[in-house]
Structure formats: C-alpha cells, structure tokens
Amino acid sequence: MSSAAATRPAATAEAPRTDAAQLGMWIFLAGEMLFFGALAVVYFVARRHAPDGFAAASGRTDLWLGTLNTAVLLSSSFAVALAAEASTRKPAKAARWLWLAVALGLTFLLVKGIEYRDEWREQLFPGPAFALASIGGAELFFTWYFVVTGLHALHLAIGIGLCAGFARALQRGGLRGDAGATRVHVAALYWHFVDVVWIVWYPLIYLVAPRR
Amino acid sequence: MNRPSDPEEARGQRRRRRRYLVAWLALLALLVLTVLLAGLHLGRGNLVMSLVIAAAKAAIVGWVFMALSEAPALLRIVAATGLAALLVLSGLSAVDLGTRLDEPAMWSR
Q1: pTM (2 decimals)?
Q2: d(Cα B96, Cα B81) in Å, to the nearest integer?
Q3: B95 to B88, B90, B102: CA distances (angstroms)
Q4: Which chain B residues contact residue A41 at CB under 8 A?
Q5: Distance between A23 CA and the closest CA of chain B, angstroms
Q6: Which of A37, A71, A89 sits opposite B4 (nearest CB)?
Q7: Which of A159, A184, B107, B108 could form a disulfide linkage to A87, CB 3.0–4.6 angstroms apart?
Q8: Mean pLDDT over residues A118-122, rounded?
Q9: How many Cβ atoms are within 10 Å of A43's Cβ, its own excluded?
Q10: Contacts with A212 (C-beta within 8 Å, 6 or more apart), sequence order
Q11: Are residues B66 and A192, on separate chains, in Cβ contact within 8 Å?
Q12: pLDDT digits over A158-210, tens only?
C-alpha cells in the first residue's frame, strides 16, 4: 500500500473517495436486493399454492413485448457501461452513451405502458370485473405483477432522471475529473441493478407455463 | 491519475469495451435461448431452466457491467453479503412453507 502510494501518489489520493462512493451504493443495493427478494419469496409461495392460476394468468401476459423490453433493458446496460468507461476521459462520448440509455429506458416505459393498457382493456387489472376470476390464484398473480412491475418502473424512472441529469452536466462541462467519473460510475451501478431486477422478473412473469 | 496518453490505460479501456460487447451479445443470446426453451414442454424443467438462465444473465451483469470482476474485496463482500442474506431469509421461508402440509395457509384450505 505505502509503496504504491509512493509511486502513484495522485492515483491513491482519489482512490479512497471512489471506493467509499461505490461502497455506499453497494450497501444501498444490498438493501434493495432484500426488498425485491422479499417480493420474489411472496411470488414463489403464492405460485406454489396456486400453480394453475399462475400458469393461466401468465399465459395472458404479452411474451413478445416482455421479451422486447428485456432486450431493450439489456442494451441500455451496455450503453451505461460504455458511458461509465468513457466518463473518465471522454465526457462528450459519455454523455452520448447516457442519452442512449435514457432513450432505451423511456422505450422500456413506453412498451410497459402499452402492456398495461392492453391488460386494462382485457380486464386483467385486479378488481370486481377481473377476467380470470373463476381461476383461483390468477388475480393474485396480477396483483403481484402490477406491484412489482410498478416498483421496477419507479426505480427505472429514477435511473432515467439520474442519467439524463448527468448527461446534461457532462455536456455543460460539469462532472469533470475523477470525482465526476466516480458519480457516473455509481449511477451506472444503480442502473445495472435495476436491469438485474428485471432479468429475474422476466421468467417469473412471462414464462410460468410453456408458450405455444 | 493516469494521463490520456498512457498507452497501458488506453489498452485497458479497449479491453473493457470488448468485454462489455461480448457480455451484451451473451445476454441477448441467453434471452433468445430462454424464449426458445419456453416453447418446449419440460414440466418443472421449464421453471428450472428459465431460472438458471436468469441467474446466468444476472451474473454477467454483476460480474462484467457492475465490474465485480475488478472490484476491491470490500465491494465484493458487500455484494455477497446481500445475496447471502437474501438466500438465508428465503431459505428459511421455504422451510416454513415446506413443513406446512398439515397446517395449510388460509387460501389453500
């Protein structure tokens, strides 16, 4: 440690702050893991009690829009990773990658909105007029579905706000140097985590029963 | 910090960008695979396969995009602790659920 500090003084001066910022985000994400994990446990308990209801309800979700959205979100993570990588030395490039991630995030929300609209029209929103009321557990599935996709969309919207704010700041000459790059890296960690949450939700929502 | 002209740093950046590209292509390939498998009737295998693929995708995002592969031990420990706590708590819930056959939950009576 001390010999490294002697050879690369500037690098080690910034390193503790970088580590502390990333550590803070990882601790937050560990908490988020438990928050979303509890929702996954709820899912598996309910699905075990009502396998047929969950299969019937999942069959009514739109596999193709869900798959498209998964591809969109995976690609947005790629863009954010490139943005974080570029943020250290190429702020203009980093800003462009962040704007691409913002566009992909908004695309995800738009597609999710289309899914919600279709499900509302097909009376799949839990309530007195619920379309699959005769199948036990189907309403439970859709209650869970709207809660978790809504919470995920909220997290994504926060990520979109962060990326848009940072992209603007980078274009206006802000967030320069290692301190600026650290902030972009920390926001990127959050974005990737929201992507991971969706990766787990995707099979639980769309792939309960074999399709076709 | 290193200067932009540092050739070693430039090589490192190129290497990381290549890693990101490979990770992205692998993620999309796994997505296609999981959709194809969803067309097969494998019984419990459908759930198992889709969860295995989801775990693989999450691992790629965590290891490559979230840079756990290059992270200091402290960050890895925090990530592992979060995951371990989740597994312990959900495992304990599963123990409760698995031993309830003679005391079914309210909605399964």
Answers
A1: 0.89
A2: 23
A3: 10, 9, 14
A4: 89-90, 93
A5: 6
A6: A89
A7: A184
A8: 95
A9: 21
A10: B39
A11: yes
A12: 999 999 999 999 999 888 888 888 999 999 999 999 999 999 999 999 999 88
Contact in structure between A207 and B46 (CB atoms under 8 Å): yes
Query: Using one digit for the tens of pLDDT, what is the confidence trace for B34-54?
Result: 999 998 888 888 899 999 999
pLDDT at res. B106:
61
CB atoms B86 and A34 under 8 Å: yes
Tell me, what amino acid is at A103? A
Which tokens go with A187?
Answer: 């926001």
- One-letter amino acid at A71 equals A
B61/chain A closest Cα distance in angstroms: 7
How remote is the C-alpha of A111 from its chain's centroid?
A: 14
Kindly report, residue by residue over A45-102, the tens digit of the pLDDT.
899 889 999 999 999 999 999 999 999 999 999 999 999 999 988 889 999 999 999 9
Chain A residues with CB-CB distance to B34 below 8 A: 202-203, 207
CA dihedral (B80, B83, B85, B87) positive or negative: negative
Among chain A residues, the shortest Cα distance to B10 is held by A89
Q: Is the dihedral of CA B89, B91, B95, B98 positive or negative?
A: positive
Judged by CB atoms closer than 8 Å, whether chains meet at B24 and A75 is answered as: yes
